Every structure is written in C-alpha cells, then in structure tokens.
Structures
1.
Amino acid sequence: METLTPKQREIRERERRILDVATPMIREHGMSAIKMDSIAQAMNLTRGTIYNHFPNKEEILMAMAGRAVARRMALFHFATTLADRPRWSCAAIGLAAEVYADHLPDDFAIEQMVRHDPVWQKTSPKRRTVLLDCEELCIQAIGSLIDAAIECGDLDGSTTTTIASLKQQITFGLWSLVYGGLVIEATSPSLVTSGIEEPRQAIRRNCNALLDQLDWRPHYKASEYNALVNRITPNLIVRANELQHEHFEGPSDLMLGAQTPNGGEKDHDS
Amino acid sequence: METLTPKQREIRERERRILDVATPMIREHGMSAIKMDSIAQAMNLTRGTIYNHFPNKEEILMAMAGRAVARRMALFHFATTLADRPRWSCAAIGLAAEVYADHLPDDFAIEQMVRHDPVWQKTSPKRRTVLLDCEELCIQAIGSLIDAAIECGDLDGSTTTTIASLKQQITFGLWSLVYGGLVIEATSPSLVTSGIEEPRQAIRRNCNALLDQLDWRPHYKASEYNALVNRITPNLIVRANELQHEHFEGPSDLMLGAQTPNGGEKDHDS
DNA sequence: CGATTTTTTTGACAAAATGTCAAATTTGAC
DNA sequence: GTCAAATTTGACATTTTGTCAAAAAAATCG
C-alpha cells in the first residue's frame, strides 16, 4: 500500500501544478482573477477535475498561502544561519523579509491576500492550522534569538518587567516595522509623492534604532551593518530562487491534502 | 442653476445612503459580500438604479474608502489639536489611529481592502486622486509636527544628513509601527497563541522607543504619557463617533461624484 | 392645468462564473 | 482480456454582473 501507482503519482503532481498555474494569475488582479476554468484549460483538463482536488477557489488560495509561508519560514531559518551573533541573525531575518518581498513577490502578495480576503471562513480548519503553525514558528524564531541574546549577555533581560514582555515588544515591533513597511511600500502609490523615496533604508534604520534603544548589543554601526548586508544578501537571493522551485512535499498530507473525490466520509455505510 | 430640485436632492442623498447600506455588508465577508442586488433591495430600488450612481462595485468600495480616509484625516487633525507640544501631538495621532481602528472598524477594514483588492485599476482616476491626496495630507501632518519640533528645539535636525531624510525615517517608522501593528493585530489569529497578548502596549512602547532613540524631546516618561492617554482618548472617541454620522459633503464633487446617467459631459454644448 | 420634453427607473436579457453529478472513460488487478 | 474501482467529463442549475430599450416619473412651459 505504500507504492504509488502511476496515476496516483500524477494526481499528486497535479495538485502542485494547479498551484503553480494559479499563482501568477492571482498576482495582477487578485482573488477574482482565479477562474477555475482558466486553470483547467491551462492544464488541458476540465473544471470538474480541478474540483476533485480543491472544493473551491478559497482552498486553492489557502494552499498557495501555505506553500508561501513555508517558503518564507525556510528563508528566515536559512537567514539566521548566515550570521553568528543574535542581533545579526535578527538583522538577517529582516533582510530575508526584503528578499522575500522582492524575489518571491507572488508569495508575498498571496500572504497579504489571505489575511484580508474573507477566505478564512470558507476554508477547512486543516489548511488554516498549517498556516497558523508556520506563522507561529516564524515568531518563535525571533523569540529564540532574543533568548540567545540574553543568554550570551548581549541583551539585558532585567530592564523590563518580564522577559516575556520584552520578547513581546521586540518581536511585535520588528514585525510591524518590516511587514508594515513592506506592505505600505507595496500598496501605497502616494509614498514617493509624499517624499518617502527610500522606504528600505527607513525600515532598516528604524529596526536598528529600535534595537539600539532597547540596548541589544552590539549597537548599530553603519560599516558593520552594511558589511553584513553585502555579505548575506546574495546568499538570500540564491536561496529564495531555489525555494521557488523546491517541491515542499514535506508536511505533505497537510500542505497538499489529496482528496479522494468520493470523499473520506464514504466508508460509514458501505 | 444653483437650487436643486427635490429629485436632484434625493439623488444626492441616495448616493450617501448607498455607502451607508454597503458598508456593514462588506465588513464580515469582504468585497464579494457586496451584491448590487442586495443593496438595491435594501433601499427598495432595482439594480439598474444603483448602476446609475456607480458603474460597478469597485467604485462603491472606492467611494467608501474615500469617506473613510477623510474621516481618518479629520480625526488625526483633531488629535493634533489636543496636545501642545509636537511630540505629544505625535503621540495623539498614534492614539487616534487606535481609536479609528476600534470605533470606526468598518472604515478601517475598508481602507485595508482597497489597498489589496484589485480595485485600484478598475476605478476612475478621480476617485483615486481623492484617496491619494487625503493620504498625503496625513503624511504631511506628521511632517509638519517634525518641522515644529525642530523649530522649537525639541528635535535636533543636524544629527542626520538632511532634514528630509529624518522626516522620511520618522514618518515611515511611525506609520509602519502603528498601521502595521494594527493590521497585524486585526488579521493575525496567531498573535495570542504566540504570546503577544498586548499588541497595543507594544505599539505604544515601540513608537516611544523610536522617538526617544532619535532624541525627540521630551523623552518618554510613563506618568506623563499615560496622563496624556487618559486625557485625550475620551475626546478622540467622542469625535470618532461624531464623524461616523457627519455628512462629509465637503469636497463634494469628488467625494460623492453624482453621475448624471447621461454623463457629465453633457454641458459642453448647452 | 395639461402637453411635451427631459430625466430616471425598471425589468428583461446576455454573459460569465460557480459548483454538482450521473454517465462515460480510463486505470489497475487478476 | 475482463471487470471493478477510480477518475474525468460535460451538461445542468444557480448566482451574479452589467446593459439597454421601453416604461414611468419629473420638470418645463405655453
């Protein structure tokens, strides 16, 4: 029962191809640009077959989002390995976020979409938890960096009331600055008009300012920081491009839950 | 030609009512929840009539967004008048953003929607510029606070390369922290799971940390800051509730551009 | 006031998209 | 090669959008 028949193999593979085909569609014109029929045609199939894989558009978007978050998580994790001191690893994650937005723009856009479109309610809990779990892992990644920083004396945990609250503040602060900044940059046509011409510089400076203020050592030094940026950005870009073509069948059943058309509920009266 | 016939009056009024009826619909289930027919029925009209006012759903959403941004702008402006030192006015705007998200939640949601849904391209340039102009005014509001702070010596403009770049950094930083933070709070179900239980506290602290780091005086002092919060928040809430029922016929032609079915281009030969 | 012109509303229509399902086809096992 | 199981298909019912000529209502004017 463990060897997959050719047909089963094809079906699995197709699941992935559906996402590949749908992804570029969504980018320009959003959710409403996904037409079950276009996807089917693009794959030389009929709508019915697509519906055997995903019961509706929302599930497709959710599956794309799952893949996107998984990729982002992988990139963030990779980023932390490129530096050897917590604060620099932290900076590396920030850069990874920039690279993510630039080099996996479809994934970036999809993640935003999934937040706002009323997709959430129409999808199965299974897909939702995948997403939530991944996001939580991203948050915890920064949490462990903070732990490590306190451990090695780079950050003083005793200035604030509790370590938990310090973690909260830093994590949420960086998240807001980077995610918020990138979203604003991506969606606000009035940025340049308003004199904000270098949002990326602003994001970086602000993150550093925040961490400096909280006295997370070593404090910002332009030369060091820029050296780090120049050193690791190319690596991040390479990794991002790799990720785009990786299969991510890892947490398979969850990521790409193959659904037998006749349903999983068939057996109760047969 | 200046006195409006009763009918013309009714039509103008209806434009506003359409937005009122549509607004609560969109909240729960997003853009796709606006059905031209539901709106029509809710107003005892037929779809055709709605189409005389707005050529498509996107324009309705855009009109709602225009009203929302105008309200936010008014609230921000009001906030600055509640404090008498630039840094405190700045804090007041941050609080105003919180109040906006809490007490005008439909408007807040609509603003986000308009950013991400592919509404932008399908709408008329006129509506778009309204939105952009309002947003720019919001940005400039912070810009002038920075100018004022430098003027009165609370902020040292000579530490950074240029004042423009300082402005850029502060404006964008606060914007990212507050907007980003509120959006994350509103759309990330995994926040609490991840140990971030007081996003509002985190946002406030981070904004203050950022401004302190840039040495915008007077530096943060819990007692003063909390006093400010307690003093002005009630005023902001009152104002927010007022704004919800104000008519905003101000920049009328733009905000609520009545479209004569036979087109606005009729007058060129009369 | 009533006739006429203009504006507004209507509802029937075509088009596009979703989601369903019994019948047709393909696959895999023997 | 045959047959049962799984898969694909395309026709169908449904929902929503957007259009438009005809009907209705409102404004204008003698």
Note: The CA atoms of residues 90 and 142 of chain A lie 7 Å apart.
2.
Amino acid sequence: MSDEQRLKFDDPALKLWLRILSVTKLIENEVRGNLRESFKTTLPRFDVMAELYRYHPKGLRMGEISQNLMVTNGNITGIIDQLAKEGLAERSADPDDGRVFVVRLTSAGKKRFEKMARLHRDWIDGLMAGLNAEERDQLLELLSKLRNSLPERLDKAHE
Amino acid sequence: MSDEQRLKFDDPALKLWLRILSVTKLIENEVRGNLRESFKTTLPRFDVMAELYRYHPKGLRMGEISQNLMVTNGNITGIIDQLAKEGLAERSADPDDGRVFVVRLTSAGKKRFEKMARLHRDWIDGLMAGLNAEERDQLLELLSKLRNSLPERLDKAHE
DNA sequence: CTCAATTGCTTGACATTTAAAATATTTAAG
DNA sequence: CTTAAATATTTTAAATGTCAAGCAATTGAG
C-alpha cells in the first residue's frame, strides 16, 4: 500500500510525454510572440494560411482544414470568416456538392503568407539549431514511428 | 527567381517542427477526449491538478503554476477559481507577502487526482507503446538536448 | 422515386487562452 | 520616511477552442 499511496511521476512513457509537451510549448510560445511582434498576427491564423498555401491553387474544404490542423469544425469557420474579412482568403461554392465550400488564399493572402513564411522558417531553423543534421533526422524518424504507431482512429489527417 | 517564387515546405528543421506538432496534437486530443469521457473534466484542469499534486503539500504560487505550465497568469486565475469552487483546490494567503496566494489541492482534490492519474498514465503508456524502451530513451534524450539548446530566455520553468 | 440516414458546414453556448491594463503589495533608492 | 520601480495577482477584451445542436444537401436502401 505505501508505494501506491503516493503517486509517482516517473513512468518512462509519461516522462517522455511531458518532455514532448514542454518542448512543444516552449517553441510554440516563441513563435506566437514572434508572429505578433513581426506581423501583428496570431498563430492559428498563420497555421490556417500555411495549410491553404500548401494546397493552393486547388483549395481546401472547410472540413479538410480542420482535419489537417486537428481542430474542430466550428473553430475553422470563425478563422476563415476573419481571413475573408481581411481579404486574405475566400470561400467558393463547390459546383458538384452544395454542402461544400472550397477555401483559397487570395493573391493578397498568398503574398502576405510568403512574407511571413520566410521569417517563420528562419525562426524554426534557429530554434532547431541545437541539433545537428543527424540528430534532427533521428528525432524525425522516432517521431514518425511514434505517430504511425498511434491508433488509426486518431489520425484523420495522415498527410 | 523561379525557385524563390514558390515557397517550399521542405526545410528539414521546419519538417521536424511540424512533426513534433502533429504528434503532440494527436496525443493531446486523445487525452482530452478520454478525460472528458472518463472523468467529465478538461485537459487544462488536469494539468493544473497534476502540477499541484506534484508539489503538495508545500503548495504553489499562482505565478509558479502559470510559469511551470507555460501559460499566462490570467489563465490560471480562472482555472483555480473553478477548482476552488468544486472544492478540489484552495488558496491561502502567504503570511510573508500580501501579494501572494499559495494554492494547494484539498484532500478531496488529491484523492480525485490520484484516481485520474492512474488511468491517465495507462493511456500514455498505451499511446507510447509503439516505441520500445531504447527508442523511448533515445527520443527523450534528443528532446532534452533540443530543449536545453533553446535560448535561456524561453525556459522560465526549467523543472 | 421516397424518405431516413449521412455528410458538410454553421451556429450558439460556454470554457480557455493571450495580451494588456489595473490593483495591491513589496522593495529599494535617495 | 518617501516615493518610484518592481512584483504578484486579477481583470478585461478579443480571439480561439470544444461540443452539441441545427440546417441544408446528398446518399442509399427499399
């Protein structure tokens, strides 16, 4: 009983998960601050624009965006509303399916994103510079293995 | 020009960062759903309780909680308000410094957390089961190296 | 065809989060 | 002592997020 009484935090899997979380938060917060200072924009908006940029000019359905970014549907509705109001993205009806909206960046949106993306890439390069190429590859490999081992059900995006 | 014109996403550091993010989100969403289904609670509440549990019985200041969890101050105020209302945590004034509140789990809070933590640990064990012990250690090692290489300024928590 | 089930998206209620301003207390310089 | 600066927390406003319910369009079993 006395060993079960006091919960420990030294389960190796748990420790690994907490380490993943802390690295993620540290970098995420840094990027969030940089986006705000350099471009007066937010991380979620940047993420959506990146997703749209990657798939322009074909565009993406609302549902594809939320699936790929792993957030809920209603969330994306609001962010696209904003981007649309700012003239950075636009919805267009799908001629084959009346329920679907296809979202694309406007040319202003593309131009804006390209400006942000170059700096963003530099930030990430800088933050990852503590690992050499081999370590980076190893880390990527291990994370890929972990991701691919997760229950299929979790991974609706896939890539 | 033609190579710069069309932005690429294949920068190795960027690819690694996106992989870290996707693994994090997949696991986080799974845990969030499990907490809701099994305990009708939320991930942020669980995180705060875990942090408090780890440091009971000494308790933590509001600011220590937000620093350790890497979220903003105002955020924690609301969550502690909730936990206090539910009788799971309590604030007490610091006799030496009138600005400070020290927060502790109540015994009900401790008991509740222990119940959740065991299941939570099992979920994480399950989600990490795709890696063997050696891979897990390697991954932890690489993430630690990455975290320690990040600018000091980012890491106010430290552990 | 017909209609129940499914799908894609939006809406609404509410919780979380950040960022910045406000409040209260302590510290420290003079 | 006085008072400006620093610190700890809360409050506020705006954005983001989940979840569930709702609506409209499509699908598919009969």
Note: Chain B touches chain A through 57 residues (CB under 8 Å).
